[in-house]
Structure formats: C-alpha cells, structure tokens
Amino acid sequence: MRFVGLLLAAGLACAQNGMRTRTAAGLDSIDPARLKAELTFLSSDALAGRRSLETGSEVAIQWIASQFAIAGLTPAAGDSYLQPVPLIEFTADRMASSLVIEHAGKATAYHAPDAVSNFPNEVAVSGPIVFAGYGITAPELGYDDYAGIDVTGKVVLLFNHEPREDDETSIFNGRGNTRYANNTYKAFNAQRHGAVAVLAMPDPGHQRGRGRGSRGAFALTRPRIPSEALAEGGPAIPLFTISTGIGAALFDAAGKQPAAVQSAINAGPAPASFAIPDTRAELRPVISDRRRADSYNVAALIEGSDPALRNETIVFSAHFDHDGTGPLGVLHGADDNGSGTVGVVELARAFARNPVKPRRSLLFIVFAAEERGLLGSYYYVSHPLRPLASTRAVINFDMIGRNEAADPRVQTAISPDTSNELALIGTHYSPDYRAVVERNNQSIGLKLNYKWDRDSANSVLFRSDQYPFLLHDIPAVWWFTGFHPDYHQVTDTVDRINFSKMARILRLAYLSGFEFADDEHPPLLNPKAMAR
Fold first, then answer.
1. What are the φ/ψ torsions at residue 386 (nearest 5 degrees)?
2. C-alpha span between 217 and 211 (Å, rounded)
3. Which backbone phi and psi does 503 adopt, to 5 degrees?
4. Going by DSSP bridges, is the β-strand pair 82-92/476-480 parallel, antiparallel, or unpaired?
5. Are 50 and 321 in contact (CB under 8 A)?
C-alpha cells in the first residue's frame, strides 16, 4: 500500500509540474507594481469616482478597451470591445406614485412610505390580486409558489425573503441566502408567469436589521444620486414594496392572517397561494426626471485551442463603475472596484502572454453600472456575447485589494488576521468549483474563507455581478477580500491596497481559470449541494 501511495504521489507531482510548465509564462507575468500603477490612475481624482454615465466612467471604459487591444485580445462584441448597455437614469417621485387598492367597491390610495416604487417608466397597470407565497419557483428543490394558480394579467402579492430562513433543516439555505431570496429575481419570475405587477410585503416574524434581499444600511452611506435601470433586459413590470399594514389588510380581505399562512408554507415547505376575492390593485409609478443613455460593458476574448471545446466559455469579470463624488469629495473606489478592474485586465495580459492556451475560450468582461443594481451583468445575461448554455464558470472579482476589517455597517465575525485571506461567495452551489480552487491554492497559500455562504444578515450573494449568471445555472463565484470601514467612503484609496495579496489572488484565479478552461470536466452547478 505504501508503494501504491508513493506512485500516486509521484503521479500527482508530475501532473502539477506539467501544469506549471504549461502555465508558467502567464503566471509569472502577474506584476504587483503594474497593478499599483494602473489602480493609481483608475482611482485618481481625475476619474472623479467613475460614476455611471459620467466622464470618469467613460474614461475607464476607454482605458480598459485600450489595454485589451494592446494585449492583443479579440474584440468580443463584433469588431468592438464595447457592448452598449442601454440605461434609463431617473428620479422616482415617490409621493406622487400611487397604489390604489379596491375591495368590495371601496378604493383606498397609498403613497410613500407605505407604498414605494422605483420603476423607471410611468405606467398604469391594474388587475386582480393573487397571493403567491414567496414568489419562488425552484424545481431542483421541488418547490413552486405558482403551482396551481394562474397569475396571467394579475397583480402578485409576495412575502419578502424565502421559506424557513434561519432554519438549519430548510431545503433552502437556512442560515444563508439562496439565489431565490432577491426581489429582482421575484419580479422576473412573476413576469415569466404572466403577472402585470408585484407587491412585496414584509414576511411575518422577520428579524429587524437582518438585511436579506437588499443592501440594507449601506444605502445610507451612498451619495443621493438619480437611480438607473435597464432600458431593456431588466424586469418589465413594476414592483411596489408595501407596508405590513397594507399587507395585513389584503390578507384580511381573504379571511387569512399573514403569520398563519407563513407557518403553513414553512411547515412543508409547500406553497399556500390563493386569490384575494373581490380585490384589485392599480399601480402608478411617477417619474420626475428621466433620460436615456448608453454605458458599455467592455469585453475581450482569447479563443480556446481545442476545435471541439472552444465554443465553451470561462468568464473573468469585474465592474468598473463606482459612486462618483459626494459631500466629502471623490469616492475613489480603489478597492471597490478598481481592484477587480485592474485584476481582470492583468489576467487578460497573462493569458495572452502564455504560449499555451487552454482548450476552452476565455471571456474577459468588465461590467457597467454594477453600483446601480448589477445592470451591466443583467444586460449581458439577457444579451450574451457567448452562449450562456456553454458558459462553464465565472470568476468574478469585486473588492480584492484589502484586508477585511471591522465595519459597523456589517454583521459578521472576522478572523484575527485577514492579511492573507480570500472569501469565495457561491461555492455552496458548486463543490466542483471549490475543489479546483482549493487544489490550485496548494501552491499559492491563501487562507480561503466561505463564511458568506452562510451569511444571514448582509445579502451578500446578490451584491455583485456573479449573481445574474447564477440565475442561469452557471457556476459563478464572487472573489472578495471583505468589507472594511472605507467601503463606499472617500477613504477607499490606493494607498490602502495590499498589492502583494492582490497578486496572489490573481495567480490563484489564473491557475483555477486555466484548469476550468482546460479540464475534461468543467465545474457543474449543483443547487442541492448547499455545502454545510
């Protein structure tokens, strides 16, 4: 047995040495000094915080495209590196926007703060109201709130979040998020089922301060700027968030109580959907200012070396935009997400310089308008430059330049020393993905952290550009070095970046991405895994 073990070890060493030979040129080219020089430029005052649709973000777009061209990558959007992302910048008039509920011939009008909309178009939609549980269709979990009901032409009333949250035995993630707890997903799902609008109400018993499904307290620190939405590729039906009181009145019209219905759903978990009799809703979002403009995703390709596999794709992604300027000055966005942007560019160079190309193709894409709601990545998955059905994995960088540190806006335990720590968010959906990264990390030596997959407070799974890919059954993981007090502050500056750590992260991504692109069996999404 000892002899067999020695043979296996020798075989593994040979394989690792062979991979090292095939990847060395690109791996060794990753340069912390170049990362620092480029991030110094991207996070400088001259780019004024790279706010979407402003001059600084336009400069970033052109800089990324120029670097892809210099490295010799192929444009991914036809003959261009730029994929237009059609945006609407708008200001919702929340007091003028209205929700009218009519029951038994009596109409009652509601406005903010009891009924709030952030829909980019002025429309008037109405229909009967149907309660559809949490608004989730999860076939792999045997759960569908829309089973047995027809919501075509109707307004759907939904609970926020998901069944049995914080329950370790839940078929959902229990202590963490699944991909279904987000209201953007729920709007898309209602739209697919034929609904004309969504009313989202607080789920009974949800603990205050546990911010699933939104950015929670972080919104309070951001400058007050107009909203943005996709002109196409986003939810096409309005969603109003409504108060507990409005929700309770709607349940009362059906002779039911929200807490009792929630308990019935959670007991299965199984749907408990129903029509609300003799009740209609009319939703009228009102916009005070609105303009249409394009931003751009920046995308480049390295074609795979295998004629049979080059149509399959591995994605390296980040976002280039940040929050512009505020009352205290420029929000530089060095870590968020200048670090990810220069990381994608550096990896594009590394793969281009490596004489050996992996068998699958590599797409390097830096998304627009992430800070405004993942708009560039949502647009990409609705207008993909490479088929989503043959996209095998996503490595998404968002904030890979710092050491995690205590931040009063974040509820989490932090390791005593985070100077060599990298968090991976979403590997609970793909143990295959995790195994590849861990195997390649043996030669890099980072401390890998998976705590955010079991996070119940900060809505982390939904907060970067890997999420829209996850909705399309693609193993997509956010590489992240954690929050810190400078997050979304003017103090997120280049002098605080840990460039040696950043380079180690990029080397791990290079090796892992090469294996994803070259191995016979790429990682698979396994929604039932939910690694505990």
1. -130, 145
2. 8
3. -65, -40
4. unpaired
5. yes
pLDDT higher than 90, residue 16: no
| pLDDT beyond 70 at 11 | no
Q: Which two tokens stand for residue 486?
A: 């400078």
Domains delineated in the chain: 58-88+291-518 (3.40.630.10), 94-285 (3.50.30.30)
Q: Is the pLDDT of residue 256 over 90?
A: yes
Q: If we measure between CA atoms, which residue out of 275, 304, 454, 298 comes closest to residue 370? A: 298
Alpha helices in 354-459 (DSSP H): 375-382, 431-441
Phi, psi of 280, rounded to the nearest 5 degrees: -130, 160
Sorting pLDDT into bands at 50, 70 and 90, what band is 456?
A: confident
Closest CA to 377 of 184, 525, 192: 184
∠ Cα 154 229 48 (to 5°): 160
Q: Is the pLDDT of residue 135 over 80?
A: yes
The beta strand positions in 173-269, using DSSP E, are 197-201, 227-230, 239-242
Cβ pair 59, 379 in contact under 8 A: no
CA distances from 121 to 231, 240, 383 (A): 9, 13, 21
Tell me the residue type at 131. Answer: F
Q: Is the dihedral of CA 384, 389, 395, 399 positive or negative?
A: positive
Strand partners, 91: 289
Q: Does residue 113 have a cis peptide bond before it, meaning omega lies within 30 degrees of 0?
A: yes
How does strand 143-144 pair with strand 137-138?
A: antiparallel
The first and second tokens of residue 399, run together, are 């904030």
**pTM listed for this prediction:** 0.93
Which tokens go with 266? 């959670």
Angle ∠(224,229,235) on CA atoms, nearest 5? 135
CA distance 372 to 321: 9
At 316, which amino acid appears?
F
CA 277 to chain centre: 37
Q: What is the DSSP string of 262-330?
A: HHHHHHTT----EEEEEEEEEEE--EEEEEEEEEEEEEEEE--S-TTTTTSEEEEEEE--B--EETTEE
How sure is the predictor about 2, in pLDDT bands with cuts at 50, 70 and 90? low
Residue 245 class from Cβ within 10 Å (0-12 exposed, 13-18 middle, 19+ buried)? exposed
Q: Is the dihedral of CA 4, 10, 11, 16 positive or negative?
A: positive
Q: Are strands 98-103 and 137-138 parallel, antiparallel or unpaired?
A: unpaired
pLDDT value at 392 more than 70? yes
Helix (H, G, I), strand (E, B) or coil at 243: coil
Which residue, 277, 280, 206, is CA-closest to 244?
206
Report the alpha-carbon distance of residue 278 to residue 254 in Å, rounded.
Answer: 9
For residues 386 and 17, give the distance between their C-alpha atoms in angstroms, rounded to a whole number: 32
Please give the span between the terminal C-alpha atoms of the chain, in angstroms, as a whole number: 33
